[in-house]
Amino acid sequence: MENELNYMPVVPMRGMVLFPHMTLNFDAARTASVKAIEAASAANSTVFLTAQKDISVEEPSFADVYDVGTVAHIRQVMRMPGGVVRVIVQGVRRGMIDCEIPCDEYLKAGILEYEDSYYDNDNLAAAHKNRLRKTYEEYFSQNPRLTADNFMQVMSAHTLGELCDIVAAGAELEVETNQELLAEFDVCARAEMLTAALQNRMEVLKLERQIAERVKERLDKNQREYYLREQLHVIEEELDGGGTISEAEEYENRIKKLKTTKDTKEKLLKEVDRFLKMPPSSSESAVIRSYLDTVLEMPWNKTTKENNDIQNARAVLDEDHYGLDKVKERIVEYLAVRQMTNGKNSAILCLVGPPGVGKTSVAKSVARALGRKYVRISLGGIHDESDIRGHRKTYIGAMEGRIMAAMKEAKTLNPLILLDEIDKMGVDYKGDPSAALLEVLDYEQNGTFRDHYIEVPFDLSKVLFITTANTLDTVSRPLLDRMEIIELTGYTSAEKFHIAKDYLMPKTLKANGLTEKQLTIADSALREIIEHYTREAGVRKLEQKIGEICRKAAKELLSTRKRVIKVTVKNLEDFLGKPHYRFDMMNEHDEVGVARGLAWTSVGGDTLSIEVNVMPGSGKVELTGKLGDVMKESAVAAISYIRANAKELKVPSDFHKKYDIHIHVPEGAVPKDGPSAGITMATAVVSALTKNPVRNDIAMTGEITLRGRVLPIGGLKEKSLAAYRAGIKDIIIPEENKPDIDDVPDEVRDKLHFIPVTNMDAVLDNALR
Ligand code: ADP
Q1: CA of 1 to the centre of ligand 1 (A)
Q2: Residue 333 C-alpha to ligand 1 middle, in angstroms?
Q3: pLDDT per residue over 565-614, tens digit each?
Q4: Of ligand 1's atoms, which has the minimum distance to the CA of residue 358?
Q5: 586 with 697: CB under 8 angstroms?
Q6: b or e along 484-510 (b: 16 or more beta carbons within 10 Å of the residue's beta carbon)?
Q7: pTM for the structure as a whole
Q8: pLDDT tens across 225-263, in order?
Q9: 299 in ligand 1 pocket by Cβ < 6 Å?
Q10: Which ligand 1 atom is the nearest neighbour of the CA of 321?
């Protein structure tokens, strides 16, 4: 290495390092630098370029620059506007500031110049060279900013030093690193340092690439989604002006607002997600849409304020219904208990009675009294569990069950739901609806009722359920156990009259847009309608008949100049046609072999004339009329009793051999069954056999045993009403039914004479002349 000392101007460089063998193009703007370049150009064009340690220093002194720099040859100088000079310099060799030369205008120094030593024959240098080349090649492949020019230069470098300088100059390393490389005079050490720097740089590049990729990925995904959604938006807008996206967003917002568990919300949000992924016109999308619509339509958040005033409840019930004192009393008690126990553990009310006695309308009144919404579910004819619980939504046309449909209709969490005709529910192979209903009615379980369609649990615990039935015979035992039974019996004619006058008339008039002045129905006409145009326990037909009159009257008011219409017994037929019913009145005379029983049918009580003929024959017993099995059996029991007691009853002891007995029950339109005609049949047969007539003004009801005991029967109230209507005076009843006489309305009880009996002897004593 030969060291030569030369004096030359020094130009401090900001943010760059010039390596030997390299050409550099730069602008000098600072006065000192411009002066230095000018001075150099004027002399031998040699200048010393060295990097500034701190680039922010404006007028650097020797302390502010590195000692090691590069001696360069100025190739070209161009004056630019504003005093700037553009210079092209060629790096020649390394140099180090040896001594400062005093100069006012620029920095000047004595520079010791260093030539790189040649290591070419040295294996170590060769190894470094190879390694550096390889590293550079790798680096080149990874850094797209390196130019092909630079690559060519590197490949054509002769010496290790030259190679190092060329690589370092193009490698985009930090200024500090470059300065260190420049300051390293030992070429092998320099090569090693440079290789490490390149590797380091590659590592950084790799990380940069990874980061960039991740950012890009995220960006891509977002962009892709954004792009697709936008496209979807546009397509939907084109199609129908709406859009799945905005729909889904709306669903999401609505779901978030539901007052329900986190699980439920998550499940619903999942459905929204599925909805988004479906093509909008697919059938699946329609299924999910209607599912979400249905679920969101449920009253998740709404309750109405309940009126807990028991006094008010009674007042409302009184306002809406005539009579029914016991029923109203029981309902008010029930409501009071329910309030005390906070609705927990209370049984379900079940209103039982024949059609038209006001079960539905009582339930409606209860709803009105409590300020609850009223919804009715008709259970008649339901025989499939999924009617109650819904179908899974995978079924085509699946829907929620009746219960959830009622909730949807109610629009509140605490309506009163009337389960009408619970006794008409059937069972079939598709599952037992009453089992599903049990769950609905159980306040322990119905807080999380699961409809198959809705899938998420729904709270029914705030609902007040009331059920109705015509009879309890067909209601399943477990359901019965859960219910508190309140019986509504049929009305007497007098009760019907009051109901018609004070409740049905005003209601029907209003419904037909008439006033009391425009249409009046005379009391006698009303009674006529009750007796001869309807035959029922309740008042449904009666209401229909009044409605019929109202419609006819309205038509007449419009089509004629009449202002007022009065309906009387005389013109009643003009409105309703001929009367449909005639009551079986009591027979005019006492008769042999004819006894009057009392029956209890679906339309209330009725009298039942039983006729017996005895003729010579071989002991055959024939039964005619529309009789049920139980009634037939009780006829056989009656005859058996007579045979066993033939002597005491004074009938021929061989009657069962010599005579045929024909028992007939006329008026066969309404099927009759039950054991309560037992004593009547026995009486008619004894009368026929003894030729002893039966009193025409007596009626009877009671089951007979083989020993002649009289057992209690049901429906005494209705039966008494029928007897009264038929003009009967005395009525024989089983001793055990005595307490039921209290249920018979006063007007009937006062007119009828009840004869309680325990055995057949007493029956015959009273009935036969
Ligand atoms: P159910 O449900 O028992 O078959 P509804 O409740 O439908 O009978 O009653 C039939 C009609 O008779 C209704 O319009 C009802 O308001 C009326 N009604 C029944 N009982 C009474 C009553 N005690 N007072 C006033 N209206 C009554």
Answers
A1: 126
A2: 21
A3: 899 989 988 888 888 776 666 777 888 999 999 887 766 678 888 999 99
A4: 6
A5: yes
A6: eebebbbbbebbbbebbeebbbeebbe
A7: 0.60
A8: 778 877 777 776 666 645 566 788 889 999 998 888 899
A9: no
A10: 24
